[in-house]
Input
Amino acid sequence: MATMDATSATKRKEPEASTEPEQTKEEATKEAVTTKEEATKENVTKEDAAATKEPETATKEPEVKEPEAKKLKPSPPDAAAVRKQVEYYLSDENLRGDKFFNEKIASNEEGWLEMSLILSCNKMKAMRANLDDVIAALKDSKLELKEGGSAVRRPGNAPLPKLEEKPMHHNKKNTLHAHDGGAVLVVRNVPAEQSWMQVKEKVKEKLPEKVTPWHVSEVNDKAQCFVVCPPFSGDLELFQNLSIEIGGATLRTEPCYGELLQQSLKMLPKHVRDKREREQRRRQKERNRPILIGEQKFLSVGFLRGKVKEIMNSRSDGEKLKPEGTDYKLLKALLAFHPKGEEKMKGMVGMKVDKATKGDGQSRCFHIIREDNSVEDVSMVKCINAVEQNPPYVAVEKKAEKKPDDKKPAAVQQAEAVKTEESKASADDKAEAVAAKTEDTAAAKVEDKIQEGKTPEKMVDVQAKAEETPEAPVASADDKTAATSQ
Output
């Protein structure tokens, strides 16, 4: 019994001993979880604190000021350039063609021009000139400033020059090839009693032989008549100086540009418009050929334009070009195409890249240096436009006929000649063999027919036919003989 009690006691105690470690694990697990939660809370609170501090640092960053030396301030405009530009606006040269400024000055009894109008000009904006800059620049100018600088006028309120219509310049890139497909002309002030038929006949008389206008429109209510001609060499030069006599009046032809050209093209019949577009594409394709300027070749005028721009951009202001260099030689050859090329090149000893003397003084161009050390700027755009109007294409060399290769040794040439003769002889032998075989075949056929009892007349016919075609191939002779036998 005692033993049993001891055993049972032992058994009763075992659960107590086994539960203690389990409670310890649960407590440890709870403590670990609690520790992690507390650590997580601490991290969250730290992050919140950092997040709340970030705006403070962000607001503090702009307070850090950079040194004033690092701030770039726009440089004031050149006073000499500002003065020159304003004086040009009020000069006779400009006011002859500047209708807006001319009328504004004329409308003011005292001849004042508002300074706000001067400052609104694009070139003044490009120089970033304000009212104070203009007043300071005109301090020593002959131009008169109104009190406070609100207006400016010519010296002594000089009388305005007569307003003239500015000549139309059509050398811009967008109008340079406007008439490639055929010139579109307008004839103005057509007398009331005259019709399109008289206009057509008079224009046709001035055209080259075999050139006839494609289309002539009716005379509209503005006394205008439009004429479309096929393209030919020198057509625009002819029409720009062409005058015709109609009804006792002398009328001039004028090539159409801009909006007037677009309106005239819309009125054309479709087949005429399509024909003109085809001619335009053809001439554009012809232009994409290599050109030769001096000793340098370019794939097209576009490549030439890019090369000239590259030469300018690679030089600094005031830098001279080396006379022995290829760039200088190219520009000198290009100057020959300038409308005043001969005059420009007199006494020329060098070229340089520098700021333009005209305009806002900011643009750059090429300058000619002469023997007397005088300098004159020149427009290469005019030179390139002249090249584009009449491109100096590279001459196309005709393919020469193939000749015997003289570089081959004499023995090789003799062997080739002997081989050629042998091939010709073998060809002749083959032809003779074919002819002989044809004759033999025909004769054999005749003999066979004689043995079969053919009459002498038929025999003669067969033989004659065989003799008439001795050069025929064997197959054709057999066929003819077989046909005769049947």
